[in-house]
Amino acid sequence: MALQVGLYQSSIANSAASRILTAMSIPTGSLSGFQKTANKCGDILAAANELDMAERRRKVKDILEYRGMDRNTPIDIEIDRQYNIPLSHAKGRTPFAPATQARDVVTENVTPEKYIVTYNSTNKLCRVGQRLVGQGKEPACPNHPKCTATIKMSDNIGDEMLGGQKCAQKLLTGDETQLLVKGVVSDSDGHFHRGVQEVMKSAAGVDPTSYLCVNHLKRSLCKNWKDLL
Predict the structure, then answer these.
(1) How large is the greatest C-alpha to C-alpha distance in the chain, in angstroms?
(2) If 0-12 CB within 10 Å is exposed, 13-18 middle and 19+ buried, where does residue 56 land?
(3) Which of these ranges, 35-39, 62-66, 92-96, 198-202, has the smallest mean pLDDT?
(4) Which residues pair with 121 in a beta bridge?
(5) Each residue's pLDDT tens digit, 141-153
(6) Which residues of 159-193 are buried (b: 16+ CB within 10 A; e: fewer)?
(7) 179: closest CA among 34, 75, 80, 52?
(8) What is the pLDDT of residues 82-124, one digit of tens each?
(9) CB 15, CB 31: distance < 8 Å
(10) DSSP-derived 3-state class of residue 197
C-alpha cells in the first residue's frame, strides 16, 4: 500500500515499479496483485482529496469572513482542462479530440495560494469493456459493474461546457463548504463559463462573468507570430 501511495505521486506505473524492485532483488507480487492494491489505494486517496478540497473551500469562506464579508459572497475562480494526449497531436488527422482521459481543475482567486477547490475527471478507458470488445460484444460502458469509464468511447471528451457544469455542481455541495461563483477565468472558447453559469443561475441565482486567461492569450499570440515568421 505504501508503494502505491508513492506511485500515485510519480509518473511510473505498476509494471515499471515491478521491474525496479526485481532489479534490486526485492520479491514482488504479480501485476494483478499490484493492480488490486492500486485500486484500493486509489479509492482511499480520492476520498482524502475530496475531504482536503472541502477543507480548502471552508478556509476560503473563513478568509471572506475575516475580511468583513459574508461567508456566502460569490468569488472568482480559474478553470482549465488538461488531456492525457495533447490536442495538437490530432492536427490534420481528425477533427475530434484524440484524448481518452481529461481532468478539469478549479482554483480559487481569493488567496495568494490559489487553492484547488474542486476537480472533475473524465475517462473513456475500461479494461473490462476492452476485453468484451475483443470477444465481439458491446460493453455497456460506463454503466456495467467494475467499469472505470465515465463516458462512452463515442462521446465527446472535449465537452468543456459539461465539465463546467459538473465542477459548479461540486462547488455547491455541502452547506458549510459550498462556494458561489461571480467570475470565471478560462481560455478563449468560453465553454467552461457557460457550464458554470448555467448551474449557478439555476441553483443559486448568480450570473458569473467570463474573463479570458492572459496566459492562454500570450501563448496563442506567440504561436501566431512564430507561424508568421
Answers:
(1) 63
(2) buried
(3) 92-96
(4) 103
(5) 888 888 889 998 8
(6) bbbbbbbbbbbbbbeeeebbbbbebbbbbeebbbb
(7) 75
(8) 998 877 776 777 777 788 999 999 999 999 999 999 999 999 9
(9) yes
(10) helix
How far out from the chain centre does Cα 181 lie? 18
Residue with cell 460506463: 142
Asked whether the beta carbons of 172 and 178 are under 8 A apart, the reply is yes
* DSSP-assigned beta bridge partners for residue 7: none
Size of the chain in residues: 229
Rounded to 10°, the helix 191-204/160-171 angle is 40
d(CA 177, CA 189): 29
CA dist 142 and 148 (Å) reads 7
* Interatomic CA distance for residues 64 and 55, integer angstroms: 14
Residue 50 CB-half CA count within 13 A: 12
Determine if the pTM surpasses 0.70: yes
**All cell numbers assigned to 156:** 465527446
- Round to whole Å and give the CA distance between 223 and 44: 42
Distance CA 10, CA 123 (A): 20
CA 186 to mean position of chain CA atoms: 14
pLDDT at 68 over 90: yes
Cα angle at 53 between 47 and 59, to 5 degrees? 140
- The pLDDT score that the predictor gives to residue 229 is 62
- How far is 137 from 131, CA to CA, in rounded Å? 9
